[in-house]
Each structure stands twice: as C-alpha cells, then as structure tokens.
Amino acid sequence: MFKVCCYNFNKSAAGLSVIKKLLNYKTIIVSLIILQCIVAFVINLNTQREINTFIAHKTKSSEVEYQAVYTKVKEQSNMIFQGNINTPTVISIFKNANTSDKKQQNIIREALYKHLLPNYKKFNKLIYLEQLHFHLPDNKSFLRMHKPNKYGDDLTGIRATVEYVNKFKKPIDGFEEGRVKNGFRFVYPLFDEENKYLGSVEASFTIEAFNQALNNELHLSLFIIRKSIVHKNSWPESIIQNYSEAEISPLFLLNTTQYNDNALAKVANIRKHITSEIKSSFSKSILTENAFSLPLSLAGKTYLLTFLPIKNSVLNKVTSYVVLITQDSVLNDINEEFWILQGIGFLFVLILFYFFYRNQINHENLLQSKLKYSTIINNVKDYYFIYSHDANGIFTYVSHSITDVLGYSTEHFLKHY
What three-state secondary structure class fits 227? Predict the structure, then answer.
C-alpha cells in the first residue's frame, strides 16, 4: 500500500514559509534603502567637494585679478605724484601754506589749483583720478581739486591715512571712506628742497577705476562698505547721494554711483534675489575677514558672488568688500551632473532590487519543490522504497522507507551496496 502523509505538514509549513518570505523581503527592502541612501550620500559628498574646489579656485582667481588691478592703479598714482605733484613748481607754491595767514593761504590755494587743473582734468577723464587733495601737517584740508571751495576742515579721526603720513612722514595707500566719497587713496609726504616737511597730498581713484578693469563679459563688480564707517566719515549729503542699503546685510551700504543704466538693471535684479540663506552665509563668512564666494540661483542660471575684503591700511580692519558677480556655466554643469548621477544611482538600486527579488522567488520555488518531493519520498512505507544510481550501478540515493521494506538503514545500504 502506497501512503503519502503530507497534508498537515504542508499546511503548517506554508504558514512558516509565508512569514519567512516576508522577513526576507523586508530585509532586502531595508538593505536596498540603506544602499540607496549611501549611494546618494556619496554622490552628494563628491558633488559638494567638486563645487567647493571650483568655488575656491574662482575665489583665488578673483583675488589675483583684483590685486593686479590695484597694482596698476598704484603705479598710475606714483606716476602722477612723481611727474606732476612732487615737482619744483608745486613745492614752491605749497611750501609756505602752513605758515601763512588765511589771506595768503587763499592766494596759495588759488595758484596751486590753477597750476594743477589742466592735468587733473586730464587724469580724471583718462584714468578716473577723483581727487588731488593737499593737507597741512595738522591734518587740516588745504585744497580739494574736486571741491576747491571745501577746505579748512580737520580730518583728524576721519582720515587715518592722512594722520599716518603726517605723523610718520612716509607714504601709505589703501581704500578709505572720505568726507565726500570713498576711494583708493595713495597719500604721500611733501618736503621742500631743504627736506623740511610741508604736509601731505593724496591721489584718490574712484571705484569706477576698478570697475572699468574688473567689469567684463564674465562678471560685474560692486562695492559694499560698512555703514558705521560711512556715517562716521561722510557728510550727510554725500551719504544720500552715494549710497543705498545693501540687501545682503544691514551692516553695509552699497555704493550706487558706479553703474551705467544696463549695469544698474542687472544689479537691481540680483539684489531682489538675495535669499535669507545667502544673508546668513555672508554674516558667518565675514567673521574670517578672508575672501569667499557664495552661489546664487536666478532664472535657471547660477551666479557666483565673490567677496574680496578690503582693509583699512592703517587700522588693518576690513571696512568694505569688492563683490564680483559671475555667471558661470560650470556650476550649472555640476548641478546637472549631480542629478544625472542620482538618477543612475537610483536605477542601479532598482536593478539590484529586481535581481534580488527574482533570485528570492526562484530560491523559494526551489525550496518548495525540494520540500514537496522530499516529503513524498520520505513518507513512502510498507512495500516501496525509491532509489537512484549512476551509470555504473552505484546507488546514489535511497529513501528512508527502505528500512521498512528491507530492514536496512539508508546509510548502511548506500555504504555496502
């Protein structure tokens, strides 16, 4: 009689199989989610590293570019000083200014103004020379070529570079806020033929001089200055005329006298899109007093805002920033590459999931098949046993029912027959 006793076994095994299968699927899904997170993290890490490397390179390039422009302007200032100011004629006119009465000072001032006016106009037009400003040894203004009727005011506590030159009698240069305008100021001591100290003179170049050199088809430049410095040094009417609030920080003012209409439109559009994130990053970055760059997204394009710190040469403190605004396709390319890699990573994980899913299904089906036939074979009793052998007649398998039929154990039968 052939007996198959498998009904109850299959019923309980099926329940266990379902639970085991669910646990296996859950493990696979969790593992793949973790893998996807790792892939996304690695791609994001590499992309951020690439962006940071690019931004660091652009920042350094901008620093080099700015320094080259500054060096050129300084050379122009030295040329003006040596060729047009530190001359016997100018020294002869100015030498008695400090010791003369007011009436005589007015005569000296007018003579100095008339003598320098032609060259001043020429340099103002050609290389954006804004000021030729003479100062007496006590730091009082003697002659402003750009405002000849404004003189006699004490610059102590206002113009650190003037104080420095009058005190140490050696030249100094740097960016500085003044009564009327800010500028890149080159201040020189003046001596007569007997080496007697007469006072100081500055050649001051406007921001426009730097903008002309820095602005090109690649980027636009602007200047922001600390509000506290402007309010301390400038006349109220000059503040109204030259500045507006800087959206990026309440601590700074934007110099607005440097743009043509086209540039003004570009600057206005960018100012409207300064995000709170950029403002926060700016506030943190200025604490280092180093150059830095921040990305800005606008109308599907990515701009780089590079902030170059400008220090007061006497106080050695950052008082303003040159801001270079650059549209660069590299950042867009990096972002596009990032999303492409994320898509490829996600597709890779999906393929892995499908592979593991099919493998698990095949494995489950194989186990079910083996379990089914093993149960049938091992429950054959009484008169039947099942066996297999190879081509040489050597037994390779015998069912457990051989014990009931012949009295041999499977191990004994396979060993001896």
Answer: helix
